[in-house]
């Protein structure tokens, strides 16, 4: 079946002929840019500074860590530029790991990302949204935890509904909130430059006094970097900052939900997740089951944990896969020499990314071992208990069980759509 921008007639098992408009599933250039910018610049720029300063111990190393995070993110982006133009398939890191290392490692990535990384990231961002959205109603004190979590859950429900209803609607939401995010970042940067020009440099005096010498603490500071201003700078317009931060975090959450649904869809299509996650709503042109699944998990993740715990748990596993993805680039330089590479970066950048990823994974564990790292590792490899019977051996009883789902009574689907 060939894909086109025109409405195509598709016949499914029930013999019912229905129209499916592929144009409705497309993301345009501006929406694509907004999606990338909106997910790259998430809630971390508003939430992480406190934690980065806490773990680094002083202003000087804090600024150095932020600079290093920017350099590291740029190096990673260059590596992903080569991978993305070389392997033009959807699913994020999933197809890169599949091509370089095979099915097993790709499965462990999809298992960990779909079950932990994506929903926990979604939860982190909506918790950030809830903190800023509820703050004006509790002047002079911290909003109650219950209020924050309930508001976070409500945001998750709204965002999932938007993404289930329409790709275009989700794109419009992303465009608006990304624009709002860029506006407030420009305001913050400009205000900071003005304050420095006015001589407000007291925080830079003895900037390295009290800095942390712990490699683990520095690693945790990197975690938060790779993830009260208004009253002092914009008074009496201090309400502008929390308002635009709310816009920013909501847009980031929308982008996180959008991408998570597509990864779950691709994994289900490839047989690495339950088949129902690969189903697409024929009426709405969206991967509704995958989006709903991600939303339900995100709500569960906001119940027990605070933001910083989620960030550390999320980053430990995520950086392991970032390192493996950079390693995949190195491996394919030797095993996939004939693949077309419109963008080709110096291999030393990928080597540097692998080394930094190893540091960010191992340093906090060596410096301060905690059970959460062990739990994360056990969870990642527990996916093997499902991989061998359901994916590798494909036992008949498992396939028979999945065929019992009354899918056509729940949602109109396309089973073999390759997008």
Major sheet size, sense and barrel closure: 2 strands, antiparallel
Helix content: 55-70%
Sheet with the most strands: spatial strand order: 1-2
The low-confidence parts are 1-20, 405-419
The separation of the N and C termini measures 11 Å
Q: Round the mean pLDDT to the nearest integer and report it.
A: 78
Write the H/E string, N to C: EEHHHHHHHHHHHHHHHHH
Question: Given the C-alpha coordinates, what overall shape results?
Answer: globular
Q: How large, in whole angstroms, is the Cα Rg?
A: 22 Å
Topology, number of strands: 2
Pfam families: AA_permease_2 (PF13520)
GO molecular function: L-amino acid transmembrane transporter activity
Transmembrane segments: 20-47, 53-81, 150-170, 176-196, 239-265, 286-304, 316-335, 347-366, 372-393
Keywords: Membrane, Transmembrane, Transmembrane helix
